[in-house]
Amino acid sequence: MLTIPFNEYAAMEGANWSKVKHIWQKSPLHYKAHIESEEDDDTVGRAMGREVHRLVLEPDTEPDYVIWEGGDRRGKEWNEFKAAKEGKTIFKPNEVSAAYKQAQAIVNHKTAMSYLRGATFEQTLQWINGPTGLKCKGRTDAQKPGILIDLKGCGSIVARD
To answer: What is the mean pLDDT of residues 32-47?
Structure first.
């Protein structure tokens, strides 16, 4: 297993769940269209999930986002701001706040932290699927011997013990 930055993992050749899930959710043709598409399918939700991951699993790293305080993501000012910040994740203030609240809810959750304490984070896996010969890759959020942990964001931050 390797510990590498996410952008290097994303650039690696190989099928991963975020691509392969299109087969199960829709059809093999949707999967083919997805992997051949050059569109960036990033969403605010995915970006917020990455920020929650950073805050919980890599809290000593610097944030890599900018904040848009101009209202809706449309219009001339938005387009100029977006062009000037190319390559950066752009959040609205309420999105950053929500990501921080989600991360804090995890850190304050006794059971969640009992799993995360002492775990190894963000490990990259690569393998060849035997029956198909397909190169595959994956990235664990956290792991301990015998335990894989997948950290997800949510729409509600109500924590239950």
So the answer is: 77
